[in-house]
Amino acid sequence: MLNILQEYISQCYITLMLLAGLSVILLANRKTKIEGTQFVWAIMGLVFVLTSCECLEYWCDTYNKPLWILYLKTALVYLIYPLISLLELYLVAQIKHKFLTAIPYAIYSVIVLINMFGVPIIYMFYPDHTFAGGYLRMLPTAVMLFYLVLLMFCSPQFIKSGNHSKSMIVIFMTFATILTTYFELEQIAVEHTDEIIAIDILVYYFYLAAIQHTKVQTELFKRELELEKSKQELQEYKMKLLVAQIQPHFIYNSLMALQSKSTDNPVVYEGIKSFGDYLRSNFMAITNNEVIPFEEELKCIKVYLKLERLNFDDKMKVEYDIEIDQFMLPALCIEPLVENAVRYGIGTYEQGGLVQIIVRDEPDYIEIEVKDDGSGGNKLTDAQKKRKSIGLENVRLRLKASGMGTLSLSQDETGTSAVVRLKYLEDLE
C-alpha cells in the first residue's frame, strides 16, 4: 500500500497541490458568496476522483486485480472528462436551458455504461490488462471537445458585450484544454489533463473573485455617495427647520407689536390676539405627528370661529352638541372641516347661516359631524371647489396615515355634512 501511495503522490502531486490551494482559497472566501462557487467545488471534486482513478489503475495492474475494476475505472474517467467540460460551460456561460445542453452527455453516458458491462463499443481490456480501443474510441474526446467548442463560441458574445477580460480567460481555458488533449492523443505530453483542468478552474475562480471584489468596491462607493447625500439633505433639512422655527417667531412677535399699538381699538386688538392664537395652534398641530386630545383641536376651532365672527358678525351662528370630549385624534382633522363649512358653506350666502359641531359617543366609534345650512357647494367657483377638495383630502390622508378613522361627506340643497368616525385609541392598540 505504501508503494501505491507513493506512486499516487508522484503522479498527481502538482494536481493535488493545485486542488489543495484552491480549496484553501474557496474556504477563505466562503462568506463572500462568489457566484459560480458551487460549480468550482464540483469540478474540483471530479478532478480529485480522476487522480484517484489513476491510483486505482496502478493498484489493479500491480496486484493483478479483476478486469471489472479496470472497466469501472475507465468508465468513470470517460464520464468525468466530458462532465467537467459541461460544468465549465455552466460556470462560464449563462445557459438558460441547461437540460438541452445535457442531452448529448446523457446519451453518451448510456453508451459508456453499456460498454462497462462488456460490450466493447469504446474500449475493452484483454485478460493481461492490455487496453484496446473500440470503433467509437474517439467518442469521449469528441464529446469533451463538443462542450469546449460551445464554450469557445461564448467568447465572441463576451467581446460583443464589452467583457474582454472574460473572453480572454475563456479562450485560454478552452485552448489550453484542447491543446493538452491533442498532446495526450499524440503522446507528446501525457498525463497533464488533470493539471490543466485544475489550472483552468484556478484562473477562472480568481477572475470571479476579482469581479466580486469590484462589485463590492462599487457598492461601497455607491453607499458612501448615498451617505454623503443623506448628510447634505439632513443639513439642508436642519437649515429649513431652523428657518421654519424663525418664521413663526417673527410672525408672533410682529402680531404682538401690532396688538400693542391697537389697545384703543378693542375689535382690532382682539382680532390680532385671536389670529396669533390661531397661528400658534396650527403651527403646533402641523409639526405634531402624534395624536392630540380633542380639547386641543376644539380650542383651535373656537379660536378660528372667533376670527371669522369679525367678518360675519351676527350672520354666522355656531352650535356645539358635544357628548364626549375626552378622546384622542390626529391633529387638524376636524378644524379644516369647520373652515370648509364657514368659507364654502354659509360663506356663499349673504344672510350667513349656521355651523353645527356635533360629537357622539357611539358603542364602536366616536362620531364627529360638522354641518352647515349653506349652499352645499352649488355657488362655488372652480378655484373654491379645488381649495375645498384639498382640505378634505388632507383630512383623509391624516386619518388614513393614523389608521384611526374615516371621513364621509354628503351634500344636498339644505347644506353639507362632513362626518368623521374615529376608533377608540384602546381598540386601535
Task: Give your account of this protein's structure.
There is one protein chain. With 429 residues, the chain is α+β, with helices and mostly antiparallel strands. It has 2 domains: 2-223, Rhopdopsin 7-helix transmembrane proteins; 262-428, 2-Layer Sandwich (Heat Shock Protein 90). 67% of the residues lie in helices and 12% in strands. It contains 12 helices and 9 strands. The chain has helices spanning 2-28, 37-62, 67-92, 98-116, 139-160, 164-185, 193-260, 266-286, 294-312, 335-345, 382-402, 425-428; strands spanning 123-125, 131-133, 291-293, 316-322, 328-330, 353-361, 366-372, 405-412, 415-422. A 5-stranded mixed β-sheet has the order 4-6-7-9-8, with helices on one face. A hairpin with a 5-residue loop joins strand 1 (123-125) and strand 2 (131-133). Helix 7 (193-260) runs antiparallel to helix 8 (266-286). The longest helix has 68 residues, at 193-260. It is rod-shaped and about 125 Å long. Mean pLDDT is 79; it is low at 242-247.
